[in-house]
Amino acid sequence: MARGRTMEQGRQDPDARWLARVMHVAFFLLLGASLARFLLRHPWEDRSPWIVALSGALASLYLLGPVLGTRATPRRIAWLSTVVAVWMVLVVLAPSFAWCAVPLFYTGLRTLPPRAALGLVGLLTVFVVAAQVKLSHGGWDPNLVIAPPAVAAIATAVFVHAERQADRQRALIDDLIRTRRELAATERREGTLAERQRLSMEIHDTLAQGLSSQQMLLQAADRTWDGDPSTARRHVRTAESIAERNLAEARRFVHDLAPADLAEGGGLEEALRGLATRESAAFRVDGTAVALPDRVQSALLRIAQGALANIREHAGATSAAITLTYLDDQVVLDVADDGRGFEPASGRPDGGVRGHGLPAMRVRAQQLGGTLTVESAPGEGTVLSAAIPLPRPLEAGE
Predict the structure, then answer these.
(1) Domain-ending residue, one of 140, 159, 191
(2) 296 in a domain, yes or no?
(3) Is 230 domain-assigned?
């Protein structure tokens, strides 16, 4: 089964198909040359009709080979046996047909299991040696006995070596493809985990804490309701205010999870412009706009949302700006602010308290083959830059 799979892969290989065509052409050239040599050197004899008929039969049989495939199926083995048998009869009648053995070497090695193929090569070699000795009319020439086995050994060794090299290359390619798939799956899992961690921290620091505060305020109001109604009402109003802020936070989470701005059909620029307006930030577009894949648009919008959330929560900035730049080979999103800044080496714009937003943004960029860089220093503001490569346009003639 393994041999059959290997042979079938070889059949599909363009190099193997090319080599098969060369061998087919060589076989018919050798067969035609052998027949012409016989007819030129031996004017019409009693055996001539048989040789012409067998030559035609051998050519017709050989034409059926590609139709039967390359696997060692019963039909393929029966076909190969018939071809070899007809060739042997021709060699007995006219030894000059022995030269057709070289393409038959290749056919046998490509079709049969290793041991059977080597046996066939040995049998063909014996017939070639016998034919050469017969052509010499009894004269002793060492080359007639040594040369055919040497040629057969070289041809077999070259073929086996090429097959093993092809098997190793196929195994290496399979390993590379499997490794690439595993790496892609790992990156997706890491991105998912980073996004879950970011959302869990956001929910914990806003909704969960707000709900906890509401619970404590309502409990305090319940305890003081009969003795101090004014204090109880104040606790209820404070809890109401916290609930309003939590509702706003919940709506923001929903908005971040589903980029409705892109779904409305305005494109990335309109989505970023609307985001900048809501966050009181400036917005600018540089370069000639090009159509971006949906995944790129969604990722850049998410990154912009995350960057502005960091500015709002941690930077203490008085102004922020979003710049979308189209270059020849990439699109770049810059988000800058004049806030308090931080040490980029820590990866935490809040001074070490949280810092889950930047890893999630970096994963989004890396999943698209891009990069995320942060330039900042304490007291000097921050510039976040996400660069995503663009697909290379096809040139004329490609």
Answers:
(1) 140
(2) yes
(3) no
Considering only CA atoms, which of 356, 361, 362 is closest in space to residue 204?
Answer: 356
Backbone phi and psi for residue 325, each to the nearest 5 degrees, phi listed first: -120, 125
The residue range of the domain holding 8 is: 2-140
In a domain, 288, yes or no: yes
pLDDT in tens for each of the 398 residues of the chain? Answer: 344 444 344 444 666 677 778 888 888 888 888 888 888 887 777 888 888 898 898 888 888 877 777 777 888 888 888 888 888 888 888 887 887 887 888 888 877 887 888 888 888 888 778 777 776 665 556 766 777 778 778 877 877 777 788 788 888 888 989 888 888 888 888 878 877 776 776 676 567 767 877 888 899 888 888 888 888 888 898 888 888 877 877 776 666 554 556 655 668 898 899 888 888 899 999 998 888 888 888 889 888 888 888 887 788 888 999 999 999 889 999 999 998 888 877 655 544 334 456 887 888 889 889 999 999 888 888 999 999 998 765 444 44
Domain of 278: which CATH number? 3.30.565.10
Number of domains in the chain: 2
- Domain contains 74: yes
Distance CA 359, CA 19 (A): 53
pTM for this prediction = 0.40
